[in-house]
Structure to design on (550 residues):
């Protein structure tokens, strides 16, 4: 039984609605989560009372805005147990955080013949930036393979895979299959091989306790909107020593200390990587989201997510002709599946008619789906406000859908 | 249920009679199932209609007296049903007739829009565009 009461749903105005005449069942949390009232209030409150630009102002409102923004930086650092607040660079989200590393650290440190080690599970946002960087620098990509439908990493040959590797970038939890990767173990091995490490925590942040010191990574990327926060704000954890060696990302205000017509001196990290007016209201919302999640407890959230994923997997296996993906153990809060002779698009369309929101497609992991030999899968992804009775209703909906399509 | 169709009027009447989403989609799926299959060889990249979430292939075959037969297929049932609807509107007409049809107005008569997501509507629009493009090409060829 979950420690999280069903009444938690009352905190989420977005959940209390009907879709096509049925109560909404929101199972698309791996794409984005719903927002609690506390986050909506924090954003509203910022714009109503504290709205001004950050850092430069002498006046009271600017001081408040700066406190909101920099306070959020403290909060993110605390949330992932970063050694220092300066280790946190605000970005638009995970995608921008990874692109920032590729454009700065990557451009400065990678050259012809160097290897970027990824896994076959990666989201396009942890693949395409490296492809672009490889094209620019002559570096090569290499992949840790995935074993079959279970989606666990095949680590048997890992030592050999690390030859010439300068950077390892891997996902913590697969958004397509739900596999939780043994990130701490792989990062330790990478470190021993002299490689810098980046963890894509888009699916794990806010879903399980995160500790960058325990993970032993150099970079970690996360998105606010996947953990009850607003869209357009995320963070990159970057170890201070690495930040010092990184060239600037974008040019503009905030990131400079002295500007002349032909040259500039740059601000200290992390400001050096935050050009222009940042997403201040977003940062305030993110901070509220982290407060909200910590009050519930990340252990409890993880246990709840995992319970729903296992329960859904168990109920789904009652269907004939279904193929379910992802590992038996070490599974995050989602389950992906396909039915024989049923197109995922038909499935999702008919489920939507009954108020169920699931995602279909390649989930931005096209190469992985090519490897699995399926053009598209259906994915139900959960969060702490979902319930077992919603999973039961989801199964009833699917039974009806399959009957219509057969 | 027999789903053979003569005209868009008949189709509109049938959709009107089917009140709830379940019977409307059931009907659409049945229409899709009765769609004449397309040769696997024709399910090629050249015949792909992009812009749909499912795979769609389409080919226009000029017949006698300038009439055009449309052959199309998809790997998703609901999309096949939508193709059957489009064929009812467009197939067997001349290129000029096809280009004169207000496809949107005809589709609106079926009141399907409420059931179709914006993504799906884009997919349907992509199919309509493709019919028009191919018809245009045939029309140009005929007048040259």
């Amino acid at each position: 039984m979950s420690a999280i009461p069903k009444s938690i749903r009352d905190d989420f105005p977005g959940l209390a609605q009907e879709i096509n005449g049925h109560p909404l069942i929101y199972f698309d949390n791996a794409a984005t989560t719903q927002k609690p009232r506390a986050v909506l209030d924090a954003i509203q409150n910022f714009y109503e009372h504290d709205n001004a630009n950050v850092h430069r102002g002498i006046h009271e409102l600017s001081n408040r805005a700066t406190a909101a923004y920099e306070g959020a930086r403290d909060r993110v650092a605390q949330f992932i147990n970063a050694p220092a607040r300066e280790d946190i660079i605000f970005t638009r989200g995970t995608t921008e955080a990874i692109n920032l590393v590729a454009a700065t650290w990557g451009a400065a440190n990678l050259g012809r013949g160097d290897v970027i080690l990824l896994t076959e599970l990666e989201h396009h946002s942890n693949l395409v930036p490296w492809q672009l960087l490889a094209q620019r620098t002559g570096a090569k990509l290499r992949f840790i393979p995935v074993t079959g439908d279970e989606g666990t990493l095949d680590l048997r040959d890992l030592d050999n895979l690390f030859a010439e590797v300068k950077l390892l970038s891997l996902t913590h939890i697969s958004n397509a299959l739900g596999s939780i990767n043994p990130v701490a173990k792989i990062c330790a091995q990478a470190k021993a091989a002299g490689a810098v490490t980046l963890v894509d925590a888009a699916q794990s942040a806010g879903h399980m306790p995160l500790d960058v010191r325990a993970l032993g990574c150099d970079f970690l990327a996360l998105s606010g909107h996947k953990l009850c926060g607003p869209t357009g704000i995320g963070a990159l954890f970057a170890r201070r020593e690495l930040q010092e060696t990184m060239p600037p990302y974008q040019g503009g205000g905030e990131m400079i200390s002295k500007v002349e017509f032909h040259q500039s001196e740059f601000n200290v990290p992390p400001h050096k990587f935050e050009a222009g007016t940042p997403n201040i209201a977003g940062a305030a919302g993110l901070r509220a989201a982290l407060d909200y999640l910590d009050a519930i407890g990340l252990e409890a959230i993880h246990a709840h997510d995992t319970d729903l994923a296992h329960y859904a997997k168990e109920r789904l296996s009652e269907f004939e002709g279904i193929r379910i993906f992802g590992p038996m153990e070490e599974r995050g809060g989602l389950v992906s599946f396909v039915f024989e002779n049923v197109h995922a698009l038909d499935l999702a369309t008919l489920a939507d008619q009954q108020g169920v929101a699931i995602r279909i497609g390649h989930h931005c992991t096209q190469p992985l789906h090519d490897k699995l030999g399926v053009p598209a899968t259906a994915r139900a992804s959960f969060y702490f406000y979902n319930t077992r009775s919603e999973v039961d209703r989801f199964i009833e909906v699917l039974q009806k859908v399959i009957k219509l399509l057969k | 249920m027999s789903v053979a169709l003569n005209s868009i009027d008949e189709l509109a009447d049938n959709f009107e009679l089917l009140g709830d989403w379940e019977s409307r989609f059931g009907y659409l799926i049945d229409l899709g199932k009765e769609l004449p299959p397309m040769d696997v060889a024709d399910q090629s990249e050249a015949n792909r209609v992009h812009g749909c979430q499912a795979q769609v292939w389409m080919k226009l075959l000029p017949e006698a007296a300038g009439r055009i037969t449309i052959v199309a297929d998809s790997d998703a049932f609901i999309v096949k049903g939508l193709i059957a609807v489009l064929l009812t509107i467009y197939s067997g007409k001349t290129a000029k007739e096809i280009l004169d049809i207000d496809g949107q107005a005809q589709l609106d008569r079926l009141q399907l829009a409420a059931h179709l997501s914006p993504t799906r509507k884009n997919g349907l629009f992509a199919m309509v565009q493709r019919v028009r493009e191919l018809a245009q090409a045939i029309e140009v060829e005929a007048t040259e």
Summary: Chain A touches chain B through 15 residues (CB under 8 Å). The longest helix of chain A spans residues 60-79.
